[in-house]
Amino acid sequence: MTDFHDIQKTFPHEQDWTALQENTLIELVQDYQSKPSCANSALVELAIRNHPKTIELSEHILDDAQADKWLKASALGSLLTKDFKRALDKSLGFIDHCDHRLLCELVEAMNYEFQGELKDYAANHATTQKLKQRLRAGADKDVDYCELFYEYVGAE
Description:
Number of strands: 0
Largest sheet: none
Number of helices: 10
Radius of gyration: 17 Å
Number of domains: 2
Helix content: 55-70%
Strand content: under 5%
Shape: elongated
């Protein structure tokens, strides 16, 4: 079964994502409006394979205001993992109005990067300040690891 429509029809039936051709995975992601959960699984498989279209597909999903919130969170996670700097730049466009899941993805990724080579870049990026403001304005109530984030960027 390589036709992406057949996969969508049988989803969430167990699918061997590793056996699918990359073109099929890309089609499943591109048709994310039909079956967001199926698209999510395909996007994750592309990310695991380090497919170069993962970044482009992730950005496209993040740009779509109508995209499923869980798929958007997965797309942001993929983008943060594949190209952290690009993900921070992309986040500037939605940080002021994004939902809880995207905030969680950002906080978790920032906390990770604050421990590595990109800590100075992360600390000085405009997204970090906007994220801090958003969390301090009350969005931090249910966002995991906020206290650790505040330790890195200051609590004021």
